[in-house]
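Thread: quick sanity check before group meeting

JM: Hey all, I'm pulling together slides for Thursday and realized we never actually wrote out the predicted structure for the chain we discussed last week. Dropping the sequence here so it's in one place. If anyone has concerns about the input, flag it before I start.
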Amino acid sequence: MRRNPDIQFASQQEIKAYQESLLAETLQYLQQHSPYYRRMFAEQGIDVADIRHIEDLAGLPVTTKTDLQLHNDDFLCVPRNEVIDYVTTSGTLGTPVNFALTESDLQRLSYNEYLSFTTAGCTRDDIMQLMVTIDRRFMAGLAYFMGARELGMGVCRVGNGIPELQWDTIHRIHSTCGMVIPSFLLKLIDFAEKNGIDYHNSSLKKCICIGEALRTYPDYEPNTLGKQIEARWGELKLHSTYASTEMQASFTDCEYFHGGHLQPDLIIVEFLDDNNNPVPDDEPGEVTVTTLQVTGMPLLRFKTGDICYHHSDPCPCGRNTVRLSPVLGRKGQMIKYKGTTLYPPALFDILDNIPAVTNYIVEVYTNNIGTDEILIRVGAPAGGASLEKEIKDLFRAKVRVAPTVRFEQPELITQLQFPAMSRKPVKFIDLRK
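JM (edit): ok, ran it. Output follows.
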């Protein structure tokens, strides 16, 4: 594959021209090797030679998760004996989808994480502690390990959970950087405080965080979760990274924490409205990706379901790449409640800010008149009328509507948040018809 780590610092015109040269190669590859896209090009009367510029992509159909679910094998562009690694998506918005990676794809994945880690300021002098799973068909855990190796960092594969083992590892190995779901950091802090561990003076100085937003848009100030971690462990720098199995690439915060940077030699990104038209910088759009230099299962105009804002202005770090805001929510998880449009992260941010709430699950279901209904299942030892009023008042103040609240034992909520087959904590359950 072609590697050009310096392209992110080139002018926007140079970046665009470079991406368009890779796009031409990708389209020719799809025409020759992809049963799905070769059929689509024929049915739509598309000559890939006519697609010369990124703007020309607007004339092509989009690819959806449903397409991947219904025609999964037709997206594979190589013989099975060239597949090295099989992974699946998390299945957040439906049935998990299989993905097959070649040796070239694994090298590309490693290069992507090398770029991600250097964007966050990591060097070969760092020691990375992996606090996420590297198994369970999870692409990201393997990617982090390989990217750290490519950068030259030492790596300690602890896996998710088990605060005692995490702290034992930090003390033994002197890890400087963690790869973690940020809410787990609160559990690390709790364990440290209960067991007399001086976490403020530990070797861990930076974490690259996945799965949960830490900042708000448009000011990029810490959200509730970010404030809680910052208030208790202020010395720890928190960089967010956003990725998905389908894009096989990521967007990561630099030292200015003003949106995740695109890696332009690996992916083209569009931001589309419901009619698949591009949106301007000041409007949210669905993140839509065209993968570059993927050989196993490349995707053309794949709609991820994630809603973000984007920036095209240069960053003070010197990169001139497109940057993504924190994810506002997933299109398939949008809630229309009493005339108000909501996404789960906005509800999480309210609940995370209530000290009496130990944990929670947000359930959405269809009521008897066919509209969305929200039930907040709250784990709180001292739940009662006063806490219910506090929760509802906060919801009215923040999002103008108040859902139904039901108190349950925190242990039960914990079991619901961590089902056996899940690779991520579950905070949102969609029961709508």
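AS: nice. The chain has a mean pLDDT of 92. The longest strand covers residues 237-244.
JM: adding both to the slides.
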